[in-house]
Write a structure and sequence with these properties.
about 525 residues; alpha+beta; Chloramphenicol Acetyltransferase; 4-stranded mixed β-sheet; 14 helices; 13 strands; globular
Length: about 525
């Protein structure tokens, strides 16, 4: 299973897998230090009817849900194509088992008497998948259109955070032994890494229900509410002050990134988005890895540097800040916990005229390492502290996100079924622009730009993708060159500037005098000023 959620799926600070190079060593040191100095996350005794505090990440999503009710920006779907005999009763049993095992999926959010939001763990509800019979549609374009319509409607359907039901399932029946399964959760209860946990457990619970046996899954060591309480305890006193001082210093005076848009920014964004896919060839990806190795950096850092150059060129701004999602799972207790742990680090960089790409990579490397050392400070808490001017038309601090994903594949093994994951495109986005890169099996890079369709036309985003690809290519093979000398024009831009804009020829009659031209103009607009 692959999943592009609203945040990166990976667990290590650089979003590149826990065993790779510099980030792996850094991650190991941070994790070891955390285990030595911090209290372990343990189950807490609590009254199930008592309200518990939200984690900082949950609090922000709850606030946004109140601000934009009925939106589906934080709905995370994943889908499966199933061939074979699907037992609906066993599927419902497996889904109900997930909700029973993980409190985050059965948490409701409500205001307490003091005006603060609280999470309340509910009793495990029975989950029953909604079934839509599409078998009457003949196989072909008509059926695919019906499938796309049903999937899009389900992925745009919001959750009621006050209900305590944060997981739902839809089964599209295409034929007696052909189905599509769409499982959807809210981001306040799960992240991309959680989807893999849920997928693994769903298989075992389904197999156990089919066989009439117990799943053998170990009981969770702790629940997400325990983490929320632990987080509140940890981020106090000198620890809180140290992290806040770091981010205050790094983000002081930061200006919003102003990408040139095709339309004025609406006063109240809808979140409507579209996607554009692109690719980076193997030889370019290998060149980027060589640049990284030569400077003690990672592929993520090198790609981020190239992305900052691209954004600087497009905006005309020397300072460029983008958000980078990290998995936030740097403790053993939360390795297999379902919940919302993803954090956002603000990566601020300066692209100067005299700097070479190699210089920029080194600066990005140093900044990233410092940021990773302060990754425990939730982005939501930084927003509260810096208190930027609230603007309903844009997200706070960062408007553009960048991630290099190392997506973990789930090997689906459901008894009596052939299962294959299929991507469900996100319908809404909370940012102006998302840039995803992921490594392919042959070593190349696949890319995706998810963009606000309220702001950008597809043609503009195609040009941006071409500029970014050109930056990656130039940086890979000429890191000693100054980035101000880079040619980031894509083929379409080059043709437009050098050919189309200079093609000023118009039909003109050679057998007419100047006086006759003047007379013709007078007849056309007699009241116009002549000179």
């Amino acid at each position: 299973m692959t999943s592009r959620s609203n945040a990166s799926d990976t667990r290590n600070p650089a979003s590149e897998g826990p065993q790779q190079g510099l980030e792996a060593r850094l991650f190991a040191r941070i994790e070891q230090k955390s285990k030595q100095k911090s209290h372990a996350i343990r189950p807490r005794d609590r009254d199930p009817d008592d309200g518990l505090p939200l984690s900082f990440a949950q609090r922000r999503l709850w606030f946004l849900d109140q601000l934009y009710p009925g939106r589906a920006e934080y709905v995370i779907p994943f889908g499966l194509r199933l061939r074979g005999r699907l037992d609906g009763t066993c599927l419902d049993s497996a889904l109900s088992g997930l909700v029973e095992r993980h409190e985050a999926l059965r948490t409701r959010f409500a205001l307490a008497a003091d005006g603060e939001p609280r999470q309340v763990i509910t009793a495990p509800p029975r989950v029953k998948a909604t079934v839509i019979d599409l078998s009457a549609h003949a196989e072909g374009d008509h059926r695919e259109q019906a499938v796309r319509k049903a999937v899009a409607a389900e992925s745009r359907k919001p959750f009621d955070l006050a209900s305590g039901r944060l997981l739902r399932a839809l089964v599209l029946e295409l034929a007696p032994e052909e189905h599509l399964l769409l499982v959807t959760v809210h981001h306040i209860a799960a992240d991309g890494w959680s989807l893999h946990i849920l997928a693994d457990e769903l298989q075992r619970l389904y197999a156990a229900a089919l066989a009439g046996t117990r799943s053998g899954l170990p009981e969770p060591v702790a629940q997400y509410a325990d983490f929320a309480l632990w987080q509140r305890d940890q981020l106090t006193g000198t620890t809180l002050h140290r992290h806040l001082e770091f981010w205050r210093d790094r983000l002081a005076g930061m200006e919003a990134l102003e990408l040139p848009t095709d339309r004025p920014r609406p006063t109240n964004r809808s979140g409507a988005s579209s996607t554009l896919n692109f690719s980076v060839p193997l030889h370019v990806a290998d060149g980027l890895r060589a640049v990284a190795a030569g400077r003690g950096a990672s592929l993520f850092m090198v790609a981020l540097a190239a992305f900052q150059v691209t954004l600087s060129r497009w905006t005309g701004q020397r300072e460029v800040a983008v958000g980078a999602p990290i998995a936030g799972r740097n403790r053993a207790e939360i390795e297999d916990m379902v919940g919302f742990f993803v954090n956002t680090l603000v990566m601020r960089g300066e692209v100067t005229d005299e700097a070479t790409f190699g210089n920029l990579v080194e600066r990005v490397r140093d900044y990233c390492l410092d940021a990773y050392a302060h990754q425990d400070m939730p982005f939501e808490r930084i927003v509260e502290d810096l208190a930027p001017e609230r603007d309903l038309a844009r997200s706070p601090l960062v408007q553009v996100m960048f991630a290099l994903q190392n997506v973990r594949e789930t090997e689906w093994q459901l008894p009596g079924l052939e299962a294959e994951a299929f991507d469900v495109e996100s319908q809404e986005s909370q940012f102006d622009l998302w840039c995803f890169l992921s490594e392919t099996s042959d070593g190349g890079l696949d890319g995706q730009l998810r963009y606000s369709s309220e702001l950008f036309d597809s043609e503009t985003v195609e040009r941006l993708a071409a500029s970014f690809t050109a930056a990656l290519t130039t940086g890979a093979f000429d890191p000693a060159a100054r980035t101000s000398t880079w040619d980031l024009l894509g083929e379409k831009d080059r043709r437009r500037l050098l050919t189309e804009f200079n093609d000023t020829r118009v039909p003109y009659a050679d057998d007419i005098t100047v006086c006759e031209l003047v007379e013709a103009r007078v007849a056309l607009v007699p009241d116009a000023v002549a000179v």
